[in-house]
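step 3/5: co-fold with BJW
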Amino acid sequence: MVKEDRIQRAATILRESRDVVVLTGAGISAESGVPTFRGADGLWKNYSAQELATPEAFQRDPQLVWEWYDWRRSRIARARPNPGHLALTQLEKATHRFTLVTQNVDGLHDLAGNREILEVHGNIWKLRCTECGLERVDRTVPLDPLPPLCECRAMMRPGVVWFGESLPEDTIALAFQRANQCDAVLVAGTSAVVYPAAGVALAAIQAGIPVIEVNLEETELSAIVEISIRGRAGEVLPFLINDREL
Ligand code: BJW
Ligand code: ZN
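step 4/5: write tokens
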């Protein structure tokens, strides 16, 4: 099947669906200049996300982990939503019930204008106290002092979910509930290897709901979804959502 056929079939599924769930990952922000986690651009000073995004790494060397987050915050502060993000705001407007489940912590879906967003891995602009649990939103770049301190003088940590940590319970539960009940799921820019988030797509597949994938490369989902489209999210999503004639 040629790519255009697949895009047209996927566009039809989305147009005919009253209840749509979208699952996004780092790939959707790549065209905004935000590095992804896996692959060549996922490294920072030769460290991988697997080495840095853990409670153990933070305990061992909070300064190192905070430098990584501070560097990422500065990249994200300069980033603007791209046509992929913007297409999803159109999809939300055109859909009766819409749920955007994002693994991204960059806040770009919110900046683009989506409303029903479930941030299952937290948000990089949130800080949380390691002692008293106080949370605050702080968009200062660079942070000073680094590591940042709470009012109680204890160290703050990034308000994100690291490997081995639980996802916000109500948020991930709602994501699964919506994915089990919707008419179609669109998955964009995720390698779909990190659980339980990737399970949102699997749950829909198991429930017999059509899942459409948009990714530059083949992923764990490609062989089992209804339609898998190879391409950049910023190019494919506007076609899928806005431009019905190909
Ligand atoms: C483009 C593109 C373009 C590029 N257009 N596409 C079941 C099986 C095995 C393991 C587990 C399991 N269940 C749980 C686990 C353990 C673990 C896990 O999943 N490990 C696997 C890696 C093996 N999961 C956890 O630990 C989770 N917690 C948990 O399970 O708690 C329960 C528990 C608690 C206590 C004890 C035991 C259990 C927590 C996971 C937290 C993940 N956190 C991170 C960091 C967030 C904060 C931060 O940002 O710093 O989340 S890791 C990182 O991976 C980040 C991402 O959200 C996440 C997913 O990555 P994503 O978004 O898919 O990015 P990439 O880079 O992988 O892929 C980009 C894709 O885009 C690629 O496919 C490209 O081709 C594509 N692309 N440009 C379209 N322009
Ligand atoms: Zn505190």
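step 5/5: annotate
The longest strand covers residues 122-129.
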